[in-house]
Specification:
Length: 241
Amino acid sequence: MADLNLHKIHDTLLDIASEAGKMILAANPSSIDQGTKLNSVDIVTETDQAVEKMVSTRLQSAYPNISFMGEETYTKGTRLGPEPTFVVDPIDGTTNFVHSFPDACISLGLSVDCVPVVGVIYNPFQDLLFTGIKGKGSYMRRAGGPPQRLPLAKSPIPLKGLDGALLACEWGSTRDGPNFELKAETFKRLAATKETGGAMVHSMRALGSAALNLAAVAAGQLDMYWRAGAGRGMCARAGVS
């Protein structure tokens, strides 16, 4: 990784995220073509595909020796390896995008040795930007304002238990089978009262975007979530394990 200029890559990803944001905002969700992948709730739109094409073209031109893994061109069974790899979700929160719900973003990450080292998450609907570089921390910027280092609280107070936590949870696109049943039971136990064996968390949120969930954890706005991608690196840079 010594020969990789992470700051330059970070700036390239910022520029690409800005261009992607303009493409997303210019699209009319009510009139674009859309299809499905796993099932009727696993949606892909022509905007997802167009944004990923733009991203892959620009990254392969700028960094031809770095591998590329995209959400819409991913081949089942492909695994992230130790070689430097750009990991991209052109629109994380496609269902939100289709419904004109403003929690959707582009997620751009660089992984080396299967560890995120650069991450950029941009929600163009709210002009909300999260960035992170390994060893340099993570930052949030709203509406072009000054960057705020994450977590936002200067002295975060550790949680004493789940009963004080605001959690992120997502149902995902699999709506049957043992994993779905386990997820439903887990959510129920998290929300239930302690008298009935639950954790009685403060509350649970489903933003519809894994990357935005993780960015919110890095910012300290949410307490817990689980997933991987650019947001995982954001959490690591913010000191969230």
